[in-house]
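Next comes this protein.

***
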Amino acid sequence: MKNHIIRVISALIALAILFMIFGFSAQNGASSGSLSRAITLWVMGIVCPDQLDNAATVTFLHHIIRKLAHVTEFALLGASFCMFVSTFRLRKRWRFLIALGGGVLVASSDEIHQLFVRGRGGSATDVLVDTIGIVIGAGLVTLIVLWAENRRKRITKTM
């Protein structure tokens, strides 16, 4: 029963993240750019307020923040995919690989989707950045699940 609850919750989280990712991708270039620029200026106001009028610094940090957003949203997706897959009886390496494959499929389709949005474009580099996020998220969940399974085995042996 516990496994079923985790399966449903992780599937719902994955769906919510998928809707979020495709929602961001559906924004036209101007909307997407202004949102990430506003976040960049907010972060700069906290971290380096003296650089707010330095256009080169703003442009550089804007690029970094956009890539970090990709990594973060796909790390969350990779983690939720991996949690979902981990609720099935599969070999341990397959859990990670299935989550990775699903995440790369989403990243690729997301970039294809952006080809049809005004002011946006698909990027193989973004698929790579997204894949790094998937590896981070799915990797962390894989490590946590392996730790929990090993801990459970040790506890069972001592009883």
